[in-house]
Sequence to fold (403 residues):
Amino acid sequence: MRCPRSIKRSRSLSASVLPLLAAPLAAQGPAFDSPGQSKYSTLGQTTRFSTEFNPALGLALDMLADWTDVHDGDDGFDLSVRLLELNAAAYVDPSVWAYASIVAEDLEELAVEEAAAEYIGLESNSTFKAGLFFVDFGKQMQLHPEELRTLERPLPLREFLGDELAGTGLQWDTWTPVGDATVVRFSAGAFASLLGEGHADEDEEDAEPEGSVPDRKDFDELSFTARVTGMRDVGEQGVLQLGASARVVPSFAFAFGPLEEEDLSNVVYGGDLTYGWKNETGERGLTFGGEVLLFTGDLAAEVDDPLAPAVLSVVDDDALGFFVFGDYGWTRFDSAGVQYGFAELPEDPSEDGGELDLYYTRHFTEFRRLRFGVTLSDGLEDDARAYVQFTTFFGSHAHAQNW
Fold:
């Protein structure tokens, strides 16, 4: 963490923080080196005061070869281009930074994943972001799939928030020093909807009720997020981070054909801890941590008969989940890790699932990465999966992530 270490070598905190205030680091990338943060967020060739429009452009290509052994499903090998992502970022003017990500999953139709502008012209450490962007929840939900430590997002995040969770809205973000070795960040956001991706299937027999919100709504019917997190130095080379997050959907409905249940709500709470350590040369490093989640309220819905539905039942309950991980890098290019996730299933919290990930990652350069991994699942569709993932980046890879 750059700020607290510089604080220790200076007489006062203000002298250490002043260089950070002189440049809009929150828009370019994380203002601090948070443990476990993505390495790929950069501004590229754009500059704050350039009179020419020269956006930073980049392309990410994520390819996958895998083998699955499924208890009651398709087994065997597959090769795929998992995603193709085009991203662009630039300063609109000295006070506004904007970026966009356009993605084609499995090389099918294009979709806008993020498109937002961030105002950084305030004198304090505060910023305002507006548009379509990934929610600020924990340390994993802001990351794009190609930036994750493992092939998929941790199990409880997928079950409670979705594979990805972006919303159209507005977010306020600020950070402040506390003492000589600690910084604390706060954020709060309001969105049109944060229900996430629906679970409906094109196969009518497998279709499930879908959640929805009205197109027009009162302010208290919007979806909301909040996060508070803090970091401090631990010893000479370590950084400890703690955080708490919430995602609130105060009003939505489940519908299936002519059946509908309205005036529903749910909340996801999360608490996260991350520790990062690097040796004096930066060649070796250790990161470990985890997150605990509680999903409460109206979690899911089901019908008695998908072909001739007569009753729509809503699951009003609590579901718990957590994941823990450890990642050790013995060189700047080589690392290996393990991650375990557990979640009570929203459709039936009396049932649960577990997922164990083992992986080795080789960074040839900052633009090319090869990963070998094995995923073992219990209570989920995939009983076992082995994979080779190759990811390459062309040009800049700019996302507005924060710690």
